[in-house]
Known about the structure:
- By secondary structure, the protein is an alpha+beta fold.
- The protein is 18% helix and 30% strand.
- Strand 2 (39-46) and strand 3 form a beta hairpin.
- The two termini are 21 Å apart.
Amino acid sequence: MALRLTSSQKGKMIIFKNHDVPGVIAQISKILADEKINIADFRLGRDEHGMALAVILVDEHIKTETLERLNALEACVWGSIRSYITNYERIKMASYSMGDLKRD
């Protein structure tokens, strides 16, 4: 199953792949709030295999320690930061499948 996420916004973004279980969005939001990072946009897609992918645009700089906290969440498969990607570069997410988004 292909996951489609599109947006015309630009900015710093977190891409987060996780097991699709209750409470993950709340945990992500809490970590970002603790770091005083404002969420500008939050997009979520999920597949039929119990996986989810979030693309989170934020206003502030994302510290390495913040990413480490996100990656430490039990449901997290991986998280990464992308900064200043124009138009999400159509994020190329439109053509990615969940299986393509594996941690290196």
